[in-house]
Write a structure and sequence with these properties.
Layout lengths: L2 H33 L3 H5 L7 H23 L6 H27 L12 H26 L1
Helix pairs in contact: 1-3, 1-5, 4-5
Length: 145
């Protein structure tokens, strides 16, 4: 096996590990969002108000973000602690990008930095941090199986 093939295989495996973690984190975070009544807002991104559609959209996003996590950070993760820390930081980054920048921009609201410390957005921060930690730990689990 050539070095390029080996590196390519490693990147695919890291990305798959991120997907595995992203699915686990997405299910947990999606449950939290459902309990807070936030899934219809996610559904609005795809022109619906259904919580089921919101959950499905959320899971697609979770898979994509999980794959990018594995691709970007899979080679840096050395164990459970680093997986949790990288995941925590990535979750915080996506809290800024998702509900503060991308989602409001898609809904015609403009960035929401001024509302960042409102109760709904703080609850979103908690969910994104949980998602990130679970994604990081899931990626570690997958790499060690």
């Amino acid at each position: 096996m050539t070095a390029v093939t080996q590196t390519s295989n490693q990147m695919v495996q890291r990305s798959i590990g991120g997907v595995v973690g992203g699915v686990a984190g997405g299910i947990l975070f999606g449950g939290m969002m459902g309990g807070m009544g936030m899934l219809p807002m996610v559904a609005a991104l795809v022109g619906s108000t259904s919580p089921v559609i919101g959950f499905l959209a959320h899971m697609v996003i979770s898979v994509v973000i999980g794959a990018s996590f594995g691709f970007l950070f899979g080679g840096r993760i050395t164990g459970w602690g680093s997986g949790a820390v990288y995941g925590l930081v990535y979750g915080a980054l996506w809290w800024v990008l998702g509900p503060l920048v991308i989602m409001p921009a898609m809904m015609g609201m403009g960035v929401q930095f001024g509302a960042a410390f409102s109760t709904p957005l703080l609850m979103s921060l908690v969910g994104h941090l949980v998602y990130g930690i679970v994604t990081g730990l899931g990626a570690v689990w997958f790499s060690r199986r």
